[in-house]
Amino acid sequence: xxxxxxxxxxxxxxxxxxxxxxxxxxxxxxxxxxxxxxxxxxxxxxxxxxxxxxxxxxxxxxxxxxxxxxxxxxxxxxxxxxxxxxxxxxxxxxxxxxxxxxxxxxxxxxxxxxxxxxxxxxxxxxxxxxxxxxxxxxxxxxxxxxxxxxxxxxxxxxxxxxxxxxxxxxxxxxxxxxxxxxxxxxxxxxxxxxxxxxxxxxxxxxxxxxxxxxxxxxxxxxxxxxxxxxxxxxxxxxxxxxxxxxxxxxxxxxxxxxxxxxxxxxxxxxxxxxxxxxxxxxxxxxxxxxxxxxxxxxxxxxxxxxxxxxxxxxxx
Length: 316
What we know:
The chain is α+β, with helices and mostly antiparallel strands and 316 residues long. The chain contains 8 helices and 18 strands. The strands form 4 sheets. Strands 8, 9, 12, 13, 14, 15, 16, 17 and 18 form a 9-stranded antiparallel beta sheet that branches. The chain has a 5-stranded antiparallel beta sheet with strand order 1-2-3-7-6. Strands 4-5 form a two-stranded antiparallel sheet. Helix 1 packs parallel to helix 7 (272-290). The mean pLDDT is 93.
């Protein structure tokens, strides 16, 4: 009996190939169809943890698909259907090899860089005199190269992207436009839940018809950082840490246990009690971000459930 899904080996009708990322596994089928499965793997510092988190894949998949539906009027996306809690099916795309990271606040990676004296991040200026978690005058886009499994994403500037021909100037202009529009909509959606969208990343691809569309996850706690809006100003004034909703709590636990994904470091042991606490925290994140009760899917045999649901959808 399994209550997490860590790895899959499906053979769907018309299947041509499979790609396995840090968290998601993507099956390419005939007729330019993709089946994306959100596993329960947990990745931090670009390292996949040895144990899965119950319901994590379902949570990420359901947030991402609902957020795509909430933004499809401003940015086209790849999504066609969600026949299973852990599965999204959509149009095959050629992914751009950059992640479009956008930051409204000086937090996380930006704050860690700032503390070392860095004032230019990915070609974007960070003003002097800022404190951790202060709001930037305007959101800044700080792209990262999209790493292969096991490698670290790397900061990169717009000029480097264009000079190296990673993305054409015309396409990059569209990525910038879409990134800003999505962040603005995400900020508005978060505000309705009493949250602040601090920073996030978006990934895009190009369909066989040449259309640039949003792919992968959007506004999930794995790809985004949220603060609670209530008390934000008072906490900043006192110099207190902000109450946040993101995967940062996992990163901080790892750091406190001597792990930051650096060479020679060993992933600390995650007890069953800790795994359970992480699962509960992800459920809390879902309910806070979406403003609705999380409905746990049956997890007695996840792989059989996924195979049945996807196969039934493809038959239709």
